[in-house]
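Sequence in, structure out. First:
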Amino acid sequence: MNLPNKLTMARVCMIPIFVLFLLTDIVPYSNYVAVVIFIVACLTDALDGYIARKYNLISNFGKFMDPLADKLLVCAAFICFVQLQLIPAWIIIVIISREFIISGFRLVASDNGVVIAASWWGKFKTTAQMIMSILLIVNFDGVFFNTLEQIFIYVALALTVISLIDYLIKNKNVLTEGSK
């Protein structure tokens, strides 16, 4: 197993530990431990992709597992936010639904020999979701931080919907190919 794939698997292994610290008070300030784990997991995502591309270590395992690891991490965090009553469930349903739709869309595209690359809207969405997640995990008190959290929740939601529409419009031919 190459280094990028090891980093991806390390990210998967961090998820239950992250959830444990986020949902419990196993140690004082567990949420700070959770945010460090979350940030490290996010950094391994950037690092494994960089190493795989730079050293031509792209593998089928990595193509499958890397996006899955990302979705597992983000979905785990989002579901915890609902349990902790930090974010309404309907927002998480919209966000997770978008991930399923795009994953299915990419599967159909790949069956047709088409690769759907990440768009700028998708990258902005991911960045907003990561910032939102960090703010919610740390969960500082005060009007400023509560307002900032709410802003990022709705920015992430808006970018989720915009990026979905962007993917669908740019790649609508994927769904119509082969249907005669």
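Second:
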Amino acid sequence: MKHLSTIGSAALLGSMGVAVMSVLSGCEAPQQEPQNRFLVIEQQPGGKYIVVEEMPTEGPSRAIIRERDENGIVTERFMSEEEMRRLAEQEYQKMQNGQSELNSAPSGEGMGLAGTILAVAAGSLLGNMIGNALMGNKNFQRHSNTVNKSAYHQNAAKRAAAGGSKRSFFGGSKTGSSSTRSSSFGG
């Protein structure tokens, strides 16, 4: 009987070890690659740019740039991921040197083309570490929100704001307020 007790203990210990390992491995969230984007960036009458359309894409990041000439005629040009990356890197260096629009609070709608691209697609163009570091900068966050007028961005911002409420195990929403229910038994 002692032999069965030892086997049972070993099995229990082994099962607990597997459970602990699965819990610990679950704690390490997989690093998600930033989502590539397809952008439509439009030049405003004052010469600044804003994002009017944004969509996640499986392919490389790319953009259509709509610009106005002196007569107000709109032309569109395609910008590849490599061109976008070059502009974003240049603007990031300007930001590091304190020479970018992104270093100060927004003043009006829109920014230069490179700043707009960096504000909207930093993570997908320059990587998670730079994207996360920039998102910690309050002025950068404000610029990101003022230059991106796409419905996709507005919906994502609403979903992020709604993320403050906790979901219960059964799917219901749980907020910080509590309610009390009184009941009487027997009548």
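Remark: The chain is about 45% helix and 15% strand.
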